Amino acid sequence: MTMNRRLFLSRSAQTATALGVAAWLPNSQAAVEAMSSKHITFGSSLPLTGPLGASGKEHVMGIQAAFAAVNRAGGVHGRELRLITMDDAYVPAKSAENVKQMVAENSVMALVSQVGTPNTAALLPIIEKAGLPLVGPITGSGALRNPQLRNVFHIRPSYGEEVTRMVEQLVKMGLSNIAFVYLDNPFGKEVLAQGKAALAAAKLTASGEFALAFDGKNAAEVAQRVEDSRAGAVFLATTGAGVTDFVIALRGAMGSIPIVGLSVTYTDLPRLGKDRALGLAMASVFPSFKSKKFALIREHQADMDAMKFEAPTGSAVESWINARVLIEGVRRAGRDLNRDKLRASLAGIRGFEVGELVINFSAAAPYVGTLPVKLGVMGPDLTLRV
């Protein structure tokens, strides 16, 4: 349904309860061939430590839960699916180093759920040269969606689609005095530019543009600058642990001011506590991980429960979906599998249903399985209400 201003602001007075933290999942590394008659191995370089460590671990859970469900049923064409994870701590150079190692050892058939815009960008020359498919990068950067990238398969919509939809909704709600808080990196600057363009289309300008350090060290200073700007709402072109520090500081300074983020913005909701996660709004591109009305979420949760995994945010859902798309590509490629056949089978996916979601990759690169973007508001139990 459409979110109106009254409902948005009223939900800003609600509370949220923190959930338990998932058990740490160890890195797994192996210098064995990517495929044998009995197994296929896939890889993921992602943050398991650092500011996005908690989110990275949830992404691993989602992949492992999807793989385990298939393996319990006999695998794909009789082969067990395996996963190698390597920690890059959200450092692009480390992401590139990890993937170079995987390529050199020929230890993976494809990659899944690479986290981060700069990290994914660092991999592109490597995977294109190696013909190594990457399914479901956790980034909506438009700069990573171009016709030259034949091995990248995006599941989520672009950040441009997200920010345009969110700004349009805020303007419709009468919240035109919008300040932008952005990460001082390529991701944040790209989203900031897209947000300003969306405001310009509505003949508006931002009340302020404030750069937030990724580690949140200037969170209090930025919150004060937002308050001084007399903003009526704040859009967060951010992700990572620093966002939590900023929201805590801004809630202390400006109470229930509407705060809207991207689908990747809030990575540490439990640390916000009951009184700060209330009413946070965000772009919703996947069903809320607590919305059992969706068959997708019920199936995802069954796979997670089978592994005894507990994930306090929705990150695991996205990577579970990514893994399901990768699995479908492997099935369609047949038993005589190689990277070229896998890439071709992924490129041919149309009308593939994962619960209520339907994945339709473009007919040619860039391959994007477009999904709708909606505005959601966080409820008292950390359920995103759309």
TrEMBL record:
<dbReference type="InterPro" id="IPR006311">
    <property type="entry name" value="TAT_signal"/>
</dbReference>
<protein>
    <submittedName>
        <fullName>ABC transporter substrate-binding protein</fullName>
    </submittedName>
</protein>
<keyword id="KW-0732">Signal</keyword>
<feature type="signal peptide">
    <location>
        <begin position="1"/>
        <end position="30"/>
    </location>
</feature>
<feature type="domain" description="Leucine-binding protein">
    <location>
        <begin position="40"/>
        <end position="353"/>
    </location>
</feature>
<dbReference type="InterPro" id="IPR028082">
    <property type="entry name" value="Peripla_BP_I"/>
</dbReference>
<dbReference type="InterPro" id="IPR028081">
    <property type="entry name" value="Leu-bd"/>
</dbReference>
<dbReference type="Pfam" id="PF13458">
    <property type="entry name" value="Peripla_BP_6"/>
</dbReference>
<comment type="similarity">
    <text>Belongs to the leucine-binding protein family.</text>
</comment>
